[in-house]
Design goal:
The protein is mainly β. The chain has one helix at residues 7-10; strands at 3-6, 15-17, 32-35, 46-48, 52-62, 72-82, 90-94, 96-98, 105-106, 111-115, 129-134, 149-152, 155-158, 163-169, 173-176, 188-191, 198-203, 208-212, 223-227, 230-236, 239-242, 245-249, 252-254, 256-259, 261-262, 270-272, 283-290. InterPro entries: DUF8155_C, DUF8155_N, Dup_hybrid_motif.
Length: 294
């Protein structure tokens, strides 16, 4: 069964993604990353609880070794009593050093602790809570096995022609001023795929992605997905297998595009480019090309 995450849960966060991750827990949209901070405040440490319920357990877990990250991450298990669609299920929450203990009751929005940047994070990934949901008869400690998730909010698709001006940079990324959120703080938005729907995922630096809101258009065995006429891959249901493609910015290859859903005013295309420097004010044109023969 699929579990619907309502607006009361998602509306606490600035951004979310079901697919923008390399980890199998996100396969088929069975986990969600919830970002409390905006693109320009991606290192916030606030960790508001997505659910209400009783804390079942907290534990340290070993993270992949990275020179820029601590050795351990943390797992928090919550026996949910709300929102309603999650009542009776177990929420599995990662990337939070807990300030709560087993037996403690938390309300939705209460602080669970402090967000941590463990070795599960690539250097360009902003701080977030990773959340999966299990049935009461499922093993809550295994990394895989969470139930498929649906988002119970409208996601407005924004057309984007692949161009924009750099408005923010980091060591591994650059953010463009386009597409622009038409109503910040209210509706969630995302980059529109050709033919409709909102793209989600790391293109192509993670194996696959997803598309939200295409409904019946994606109910067949497979449906091609493209952006500005550039073929991205094939969707089966809402899950996309990326083609063998390369993303370019002003004609030069970059690592990729970070695609997600957001409601904050800072929304814009995020270029993942650890090997390419961009400057604020620089105009950029992004394309997606087949890497065959390159």
């Amino acid at each position: 069964m699929a579990v619907t995450l309502p607006e009361s849960l998602l509306g606490q966060y600035q951004r979310f993604s079901l697919y923008n991750s390399p980890y199998p827990a996100h396969d088929e949209g069975c986990a969600i990353d919830l970002y409390p901070g905006t693109l320009r405040d991606g290192r916030t440490t606030a960790a508001p609880s997505p659910v209400s319920g009783t804390v079942l357990e907290t534990r340290a877990v070993r993270a992949p070794p990275k020179p820029y990250a601590p050795e351990h991450d943390y797992l928090i298990l919550v026996d949910c009593d709300g929102p309603d669609d999650l009542a009776g299920l177990t929420a599995r929450i990662l990337h939070v050093e807990p300030s709560v203990e087993a037996g403690e009751h938390v309300e939705r929005g209460d602080s669970l602790g402090t967000l941590v940047r463990a070795g599960f994070f690539a250097p360009w990934v902003d701080n977030h809570l990773h959340v999966g949901v299990r049935g009461p008869d499922q093993n809550p400690h295994r990394a895989s096995g969470s139930l498929p998730l649906e988002v119970g909010v409208e996601i407005r698709p924004l057309g984007w022609d692949g161009t924009g001006t750099v408005v923010a940079t980091g060591e591994t990324y650059a953010v463009l001023d386009a597409p622009t959120h038409p109503d910040p703080g209210e509706t969630f938005v995302g980059v529109r795929a050709d033919g409709g729907g909102v793209l989600d995922g790391g293109l192509p630096h993670y194996d696959g992605g997803g598309v939200h809101g295409r409904g019946g258009a994606l109910e067949g065995d497979s449906t091609p997905v493209s952006l500005n006429g550039d073929r991205l891959g094939v969707a089966r249901g809402r899950t996309i297998d990326w083609n063998d493609v390369v993303v370019t910015a002003n004609g030069e290859p970059i690592t990729g595009l970070s695609l997600f859903c957001a409601r904050d005013a800072d929304f814009g295309a995020k270029l993942i480019c650890p090997d390419t420097e961009f400057e604020a004010g620089e105009k950029v044109r992004v394309r997606v090309r087949s890497s065959v023969g390159d």
